[in-house]
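To fix ideas, we close by showing one paired sequence and structure record:
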Amino acid sequence: MTAMGTIRRLFHERRETGQAALLLVFSVAVLMTVAVTLITVLGRGVTVETQARTASDAAALAAAEGYVDEVDAHLASLPYTPGLAIGHLRQLLDLPQTTWTAAAQTEASRLASANGSTLRAFSVDSRLTSMRFTARARAVKSTVEGEARRPEFSATAEARITGGPLCFNRARLGLWWDGRCLAGDKIVLVPPSLEPDPPEDEDDPTEPPPPPPGPDDPVEIGGDDLARLLGQLRQPVEWQVALVE
């Protein structure tokens, strides 16, 4: 082979090697671009879903804590004068559920928004010693840019009374008395000035004693019982707030 042929062969080999290197670099660049795109898309989806899940948890917990704060604030303003305290307590027992849960829903909406989501649904479930708040939050952003789908998640938090004379009856505040949760319309609070005078004569032993009150009869609370009840209500209510679902 002549010198010129050798030079040409080496030139062609180098050109082919250079083309292969360029092709390899181009392929690596394409693969890296695809990988970065996939990571970005998947990362956005995971971030948005995590944000929506966090928003639903935070909204449910905020609702339960907002409810607790609302009840505690009303009880903290209970007057010390028995007559005024009775009127205040009567108002608390007669308040509808929406009065207590309005603040809870406001807190749920605020926490959902703070976590990049909107509050889509809100519900309250009353139980004997607890209230459950379910919040459904939807992410503001979609998992994939340009698509309409946005993740939604639900969470439920519970505000449970663990100590004190309060209970829940038909979604309203009630009072534990004689082993029952009494609603407001089943409680008669007797002010000291209206308590009946003790009888002057002893009861006739031949007369049968009055029948005990039935489960649906109103219960009168007065005298020492009323003083004890008001004293208990002036103590902080013991609550436990936690996610349950």
User: Anything to note?
Assistant: The mean pLDDT is 77. Strands lie at 117-126, 130-139, 152-163, 166-169, 172-177, 180-182, 187-189, 219-221, 238-243. Residues 38-142+149-195+216-244 form one domain.
